[in-house]
Amino acid sequence: MFFKINILITASMIIFMQCSDRHQEQSVKKPVFGGILKTACLASIETLDPQQLIFKTDYKAASIVYEGLTTFVGDCDEPKPCLAESWALSSDGKKLTFFLRDSVFFHNDPCFPNSRGRRLCADDVIYTFHRLADARTQCLEYSMFAGKIIGIDDYHTGKTKHISGIVKNDSLTVTFMLTRPFAAFFKYLATHICYIVPQEAVTYYGDSFSHHPVGTGAFRLSRWQQLKTLYFERHSNYWKKDNYGRHLPYLDSIHLHLISRPVMVISELYKDNLDLATLNQKQFDQLVNQDKLHEQHFMIQATPSYNIRFFAFSLNKTGKATLKPDLRQAIACGFNREEILNSLNTTPAQTFVPAKMLRTSETTWYTYDPRKAELLVKNSGYAGEQFCIASNIETEEVNQLQLDCLQLGLNAELCVQKSDYYSWVFKERPVLFRVSFQPNYPDPEAYYNLFYSKIFS
């Protein structure tokens, strides 16, 4: 079990490098094919197995390769058709029938005969759901579907060999039978754990499937330099078309650079090593103040993020100082979030759920109170035990929390685990660790899952 404190909600701005002059832009009536897009994400990427994704960066990379039956488009909170071109819902809301597109192909890959990607079919949907429900897969978010599809729990526990509530009608039609109506079920289907995977790839690559993804997305992974760069190439047989009837995508490839420190994003923009970057408010202001650089870039989107960052306590190990409520409260009261807000222009969160999803904004959280924190430390009986503040990257909030702990007389050290971070957290249970959480779907339930479900147990 984890105890969570001190939340921040981030806002992001997507900056694009100006690659052509205005006269050329005006003369081009149709989008041009070709080119390489160089973009970045913070921290490492652990896996590209849809049923094993943990990091927000994992989600970002996987969304380039995979697709699900439904998807979210832009800022829309309601799912739209994707691999399923349409669906039908029974009058009682418990039977959902999906009609697949007949123009979808998997990436070309050695797992298929002659390395040619085959057509998507209903069997792939059924296999994907059996895989995520298989206890051997150890899907972290299986509980999202537990008890919702008829027969899925019996299959998960090994009582049956098939999920009775998922039926193949024909090669392009699949029906889901639910235990009762669920309003968010269509949103579930747009999440990463429902990205459709071919059985051939999972069998062919075995344990290394996480680094050899095969999907139906616009790009396929061609090379992976661990902790450096992922290279994606255009899916030559992608199903989507533009308004002129031409097959997408336009780009030849995407280079996704892995950056370990947020400050390096601006540096890489300066060097023209990035074409596209997501910045926080502080980084954006820094860019605007550089006149020459600002003329070469333009902002294509500014939006509040669904992402939250927080610190959590591990409560599973006995003998830890932070098992004492007074000490946990002392750290919460002694954490000077105002310093971070002033430097990053980050919005403080008073609850896990974004304000726009709530009916009221009358919520409160711990306020900075160093005197109260000092008193709580004394009452806790803390005897100088050393503990770790863990993170996968070194950020301002991590450094600030360590500084505040030291000022309270707490023996806190910073531990940066650049790779296999969450696996390491689950195994080692550090006393205090940083989490950057991106919900799978835009719904309050996705946030509250952290408290009551087994998703992150």
Q: Structural class, please?
A: alpha+beta
Reported for the largest beta sheet, the result is:
7 strands, mixed
Radius of gyration: 24 Å
Low-pLDDT regions: 1-13, 18-27
Straight-line distance between termini: 6 Å
Q: Regarding quaternary structure, how should these chains be classified?
A: single chain
What spatial form do the alpha-carbon principal axes imply?
A: globular
In DSSP terms (H or I, runs of 4 or more residues), the helix count works out at: 15
Kindly state the percentage of residues in helix. Answer: 25-40%
Question: Which percent range describes the beta-strand content?
Answer: 15-25%
Kindly state the mean pLDDT as a whole number? Answer: 84
- Extended strand count: 17
Can you walk through the features of this model?
The structure is a single chain. The N terminus is likely disordered. The relative contact order is 0.18. The termini are close together. Strands 1, 12, 13, 14, 15, 16 and 17 form a 7-stranded mixed beta sheet that branches. The chain has a 4-stranded mixed beta sheet with strand order 2-11-10-9, with helices on one face. A 4-stranded antiparallel beta sheet has the order 5-6-8-7, with helices on one face. It is globular, with a radius of gyration of 24 Å. It contains 15 helices and 17 strands. Helix content is 27%, strand content 24%. With 457 residues, the protein is α+β, with helices and mostly antiparallel strands.
Short descriptors:
single chain; about 450 residues; alpha+beta; 7-stranded mixed beta sheet; 4-stranded mixed beta sheet; about 25% strand; disordered N terminus
